[in-house]
Amino acid sequence: MEHAINELIWRNLQIAFYLVLGSLVFSYILASSVINPIKKLTEGAEEIGRGNLDYRIDIRTKDEIGHLAMAFNKMAENLRESRAKLEEYSKTLEKRVDERTKELNKKIRELKDAKAATLNLLEDMDKASRELRESYQKLAEADKLKDEFMNIAAHELKTPLVPIMGYLGMLRDGSLGELTQEEKDSLEIIFRNVNRLKKLIDDILDISKLESGAMKFDMKDVQMAEIIKNSVEDMRSYAEGKGLTIKAEIQPNLPPIQGDKNRLMQVLTDLIDNAIKFTEKGSIVIKARREKDNILVKVKDTGIGISKENINKLFTKFYQVDSSLSRRYGGTGLGLAICKKIVEAHGGKIWVDSELGKGSTFQFTLPVKKQTPKI
Length: 375
What we know:
Heat Shock Protein 90, five-stranded mixed sheet, two-stranded antiparallel sheet
């Protein structure tokens, strides 16, 4: 009985031993296949977390833990490559920023230089502008003094002309005694030159008054057809004396204009006089017609004409196309400037169309008088 009990106890001890031994073996296997890999995973995660992207987890099992270790290693590799690319991009970006900064600094220096140059230019321009204004003011003052001098001189010259022309008239009509033919011829030469001097003085006085605004116009209702006919008749003997034909072509029933009859006749007479003066053969035609709210007057000749480069200067006072022509035909260079001022004072415009060697056509417009509506 006792032997059987001992045998049973021994067997239980053996079983317990084998159970403990099995537990130890199982624990070892469990530690090797689960706990150690998890520990490696934990260590690897900590290393990667600290930035050591070159660290790799050495687990080569084909279970879930092995797959997880491979995923960790792949993630670490991707992170390492991304960090390398980021570092390269950062270096490139830093280089580009440095280059752009240098370029920007260069541009800033250039802008500063340009700003300084612009300020210097503006200062020079301001100085030049002040000098120009001062020069213009001095020129205007000189021009005013010149006009005043011319006006005074013209008045002083005109004063003795009156008795001179009076005595010349008395000599011509024989009031102071009979003259020989030679004396009469000399007297005609004196008359022509005195009249030329009178015309010069009158022109100087007229241009001075026109430019200063001192000229008074006697504005009334006038018929342009009558002014043209009278001017043509006054100049007919002069034209025919040179072998030229002169005629007027006037549109019937031209409306009246508001103007100074004597001044408009002065304009037309000067234009016809120039046409005759510069025409050796052919004709002078004066035309007038209505164009909308204006009357258009043309003085057309077949004379020497004017070159294109001289047309724009033609209405400038004292301007003459050619000094040799001035000596040949005479003139002061004031007539056309006076015509322009008178026409513009009437609200019109004056211009010329010409071709060298083929004649000229001087044209001017005058506004038609506006009719007051009947109530």
